[in-house]
Each structure stands twice: as C-alpha cells, then as structure tokens.
Amino acid sequence: MVTIEVGKESNGNYLIQNDQGFSSVGLNAPGGEEGLTPIELICSSLGLCVAIAIKTIIKRDGLEMESLKVEVGATKAQGSPSRVEHFQINVHLEGVFDEARKKKLITSAKRGCTIGHTLERGATIDLEIV
Q: Which structural domain, as residue segments, surrounds residue 60?
C-alpha cells in the first residue's frame, strides 16, 4: 500500500510527504507559487502516469523519441457533489512516429496507466477519524 501523509502547516498550506521523506506543498486554491491544488495534483498524477507508460512503450519497442510533454486539463462538474467530470490529455511527442504508431501508443498508454484506470472505473474510499 502506498501511504501519503498530509498535514496543515502554520502558514495555511499543507505539507504532503511520502514514506521516503520527499515532500511537496498543497494549496487550498489556485494562484499560489508555493504548491499545487488537489485538482492540479490529480492532473499531475494522471499526466505522469501517461508519460511513464508512453516512455516505457517507446523503450520496449526500441523507438527513438526526441521529447515528450504531457498536458492535462480538468473540468469541474457543475453542482453537487464537487468533482472533476472531464480530463483532457494532450501528448506532445517529438520523433519519427506515423499516425498508426501514434494510435498504438495512445491505446497502449491507456492500458498501462493505473491512475487513468482508477479515474475511469472508480475506487472505494474508506474515510475514518482515528
């Protein structure tokens, strides 16, 4: 099981830390220069997952890639409950890739992205005060 700890700091931000001690800063609302909001964090998780999947496939298939950039946008749903209803992922990939190869990369990246599968299919959430 992956465990992340989130704690409120005296400056109003949130310290996000993994088991290895790496930390990041979480913010309540967009516009801060010191960290990311929850929606930005979920977008970054999805983008990173897609990037890793594409890079793995390219390496496995012995292809050459000059650069890779993944942009993820999120649209919040109107009304309740508060949630994201749509993610748009744009992959900027430089290298020699024909349309058939690009289509295969998209299909394979979707298959290999744990975060994408979780968002599309849902996960149970157990919330307790301990």
A: 37-130
Task: Let me know: does 72 contact 16? Beta carbons within 8 Å.
Answer: no
Confidence band (pLDDT; 50, 70, 90) for 10? confident
Same domain, 54 and 83: yes
Q: What is the pLDDT of residue 11?
A: 84
Amino acid, single-letter form, for residue 67? S
DSSP string, 62-120: T---SEEEEEEEEEEPSSSS--EEEEEEEEEEESS--HHHHHHHHHHHHHH-HHHHHHH
Mean pLDDT of the chain: 92
Residues 44 and 23 in one domain: no
- Quote the CA–CA distance of 39 and 5 in Å, as a whole number: 17
pLDDT tens digits, one per residue of 112-126: 999 999 999 999 999
Three-state DSSP state, 19: coil
Residue 4: which H helix or E strand, with range? strand 4-8
